[in-house]
Amino acid sequence: MTSRTPLDAQRLLHTGHGRALTVSRLAPRAFPSGTPAIALGAAGPPYDVTEPWAVLTPAQALRLAALLTEQANAALREVSP
Question: What is the mean pLDDT of residues 53-66?
């Protein structure tokens, strides 16, 4: 993902499993379509050579946020008395 052009500082979330999730907004000029996009990356510990990532449209990013919120709320309900 070296051709991306970040518009704002990357947002970082460290998980309890050694991963660092990065979220950044990409400039429309970064892609031939001229569409703005959001990049989601997952860096692992040094021994993990894979680094999965995805580029989402704003609509897809909002859908992902909704899905994450839905699952987080369900998980909280499971552990709440």
Answer: 89
